[in-house]
Amino acid sequence: MAGRRARTGRGWDAAPPRAGADDTTPRQGRRGWSGEAGSTSGESTPRDESEVAREICLRQLAVRPRTRAELAGALAKKGISAEVSAEVLDRYDEVGIIDDAAFARAWVSSRHNGRGLARRALANELRQRGVDGEVASEALDELDEETEAQTARALVDRKLRTARGEPDAVFRRLVGMLARKGYPPGVAIRAVKEALATQSAEAAEFADQLDADALADAEGERG
């Protein structure tokens, strides 16, 4: 069971650890940067702030890769000074322990293949994690339009296996599902239209009446 717990939470999509689960780093307080057993008189030995900062970073990185901004935020929450934080993170940058460009590429690949997220949704996630816009753009360039369209169609085909209801209702639900994953209106509408055309005669007739370009333009104006 211990081995199973050790593997849990190391993926990109891992849920954040429960409050206090990894909070074993020393806190600044009456005992200073400490947390170790003191002498017999009850006194504690102060710990170097840089050492504490490194421990915090390594615990964060043990869960999953992190951006520099994420680690900086974690250090700030633990009361690490901005000067020490910058010093530790600069060193980690130098030796390659943190690499936002590599993080962004891996994030795009993992989240697209695992969750079917499109460029727009991925760009938002990278921005939330503090990845520089130019760095994010370079990573997103590896996800081309053809790949996005293929993934959208695969998502629709999978959902259609259990879809119930009239074709127009199914159409709206599936387009909405793709929109939430970040697909542009044109890509989403075409993927659903093509998929419906291969279903029942009723669904195919409905799909044949759809003007994907006009609907995409209308959705774009509404958005």
TrEMBL record:
This is Regulatory protein RecX. Residues 1-52 are annotated as: Disordered. Its main location: cytoplasm. Residues 99-140 form the RecX second three-helical domain. It is found in: Cytoplasm. It comes from the Bacteria. It comes from Micromonospora rifamycinica. Residues 146-191 form the RecX third three-helical domain. Belongs to the RecX family. The lineage of its organism: Bacteria, Bacillati, Actinomycetota, Actinomycetes, Micromonosporales.
